[in-house]
């Protein structure tokens, strides 16, 4: 089996590439290396290509045919929520336009199976304890909106071209499956805390007056290697007969507060951390924890690693960098 991984030089993509290679699958990576690293794709063929370029659909189709790929996993997209609010056109153009090129290429090359990186950002600020896939989707920023539209595009491609697709709605991804595949961007809580500690600064908690047990926001943290396994399970699901669903949450199903994450970092580093309590950040739901039932039932996947495992792996990867 050959899989084309678009965005395979990035943080999550490179974990999936390595897992597929370890399973003995052939992997071709397409990446423009704008945020990814070539050395993370060792063992796969790397094609440097901007999927938003005017001729991208033809070029992707060429590589699909040349490699004989039978499935595509599509990661390549912008993922900064704040940036998406400031530069919405860039998000619509690149995230949606890039996906349109990928789907057009799949149709041309007659590739049937596509796995797409979606996000819990499609839900917005849901007022439920556990988020199931069928609650209303109400994204509150352009990033989340482009992911939701991406899911609709997959549904259209299924109808038009007989494709089979899965959208994985990631919750809060962190950690490292291999030390050389660490999250190098300081966009999310765990790398932000580690970065602050390295600089001798106190991490900032965005509000401690939420209606949660310790007053800080609760999220569902999932280990990037567990998430990578979910992609492999999604490919197997697409290759099978029964396909009752095409959208799945990917999370642990349990929540951790910001202060609990900071405590986990303290345990992993051995450092005493005294965070600074800051203002609330606009658009933050108090609690965002997924229901994991659907993915467990349909894909046979559930996360295995705890918050301590996640944070420890992130600390170790940073130390070895
Ligand atoms: C986690 C928690 C913050 C930084 C985002 C996207 C989402 C998805 C995952 C891609 C929150 C708090 C953070 C800090 C803090 N991305 N925090 N101090 O916002 O849950 O989700 O990443 O698909 O779409 O929205 O993740 O890591 O920014 O924050 O207190 O310096 O940590 O308020 O409660 P978020 P995050």
From TrEMBL:
Keyword hit for NAD: yes
Q: Does the keyword Magnesium apply?
A: no
Pfam families assigned: Epimerase (PF01370)
What keywords appear on the UniProt entry? Carbohydrate metabolism, Isomerase, NAD
According to UniProt, this protein's pathway is: Carbohydrate metabolism; galactose metabolism
Q: What class of enzyme is it?
A: isomerase
- On the tree of life, the source organism's domain of life is Bacteria
Q: What is its EC number?
A: 5.1.3.2
Q: Which catalytic reaction applies to this protein?
A: UDP-alpha-D-glucose = UDP-alpha-D-galactose
Q: Which SUPFAM superfamilies match?
A: NAD(P)-binding Rossmann-fold domains (SSF51735)
Q: Which cofactor does it need?
A: NAD(+)
User: Which residue ranges run through the membrane?
Assistant: none
A GO term, aspect molecular function: UDP-glucose 4-epimerase activity
Q: Which residues form the NAD-dependent epimerase/dehydratase domain?
A: 4-251
Please state which protein family the record places this protein in. Belongs to the NAD(P)-dependent epimerase/dehydratase family.
Write the protein's name: UDP-glucose 4-epimerase
Native source species: Brachybacterium equifaecis
């Amino acid at each position: 089996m050959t899989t084309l991984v678009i965005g395979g030089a990035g943080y999550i993509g490179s974990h999936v590439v390595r897992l597929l290679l370890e399973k003995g699958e052939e992997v071709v990576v397409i990446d423009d290396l704008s945020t990814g690293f070539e050395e993370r794709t060792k063992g796969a063929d790397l094609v440097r290509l901007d999927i938003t370029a005017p001729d991208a659909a033809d070029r992707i189709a060429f590589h699909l045919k040349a490699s004989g790929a039978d499935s595509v996993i599509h990661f390549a997209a912008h993922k900064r929520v704040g940036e998406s609010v400031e530069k919405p056109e860039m998000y619509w153009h690149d995230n949606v336009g890039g996906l349109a090129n990928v789907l057009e290429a799949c149709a041309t090359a007659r590739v049937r199976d596509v796995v797409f990186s979606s996000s819990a950002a499609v839900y917005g600020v849901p007022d439920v304890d556990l988020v199931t896939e069928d609650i209303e989707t109400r994204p509150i920023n352009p990033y989340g909106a482009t992911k939701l539209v991406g899911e609709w595009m997959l549904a259209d491609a299924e109808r038009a071209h007989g494709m089979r697709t899965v959208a994985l709605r990631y919750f809060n991804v962190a950690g490292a499956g291999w030390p050389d595949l660490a999250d190098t961007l300081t966009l999310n809580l765990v790398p932000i805390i580690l970065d602050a500690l390295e600089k001798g600064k106190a991490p900032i908690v965005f509000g401690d007056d939420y209606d949660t047990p310790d007053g800080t926001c609760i999220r569902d943290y999932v280990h990037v290697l567990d998430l990578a396994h979910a992609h492999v399970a999604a490919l197997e699901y697409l290759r099978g007969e029964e396909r009752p669903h095409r959208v799945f949450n990917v999370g642990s199903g349990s929540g951790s507060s910001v202060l609990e994450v900071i405590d986990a970092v303290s345990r992993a580093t051995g450092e005493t951390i005294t965070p600074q309590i800051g203002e609330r950040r606009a658009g933050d739901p108090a609690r965002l924890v997924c229901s994991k039932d659907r993915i467990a039932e349909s894909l046979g996947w559930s996360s295995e690693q705890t918050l301590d495992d996640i944070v420890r792996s992130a600390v170790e990867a940073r130390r070895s960098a």
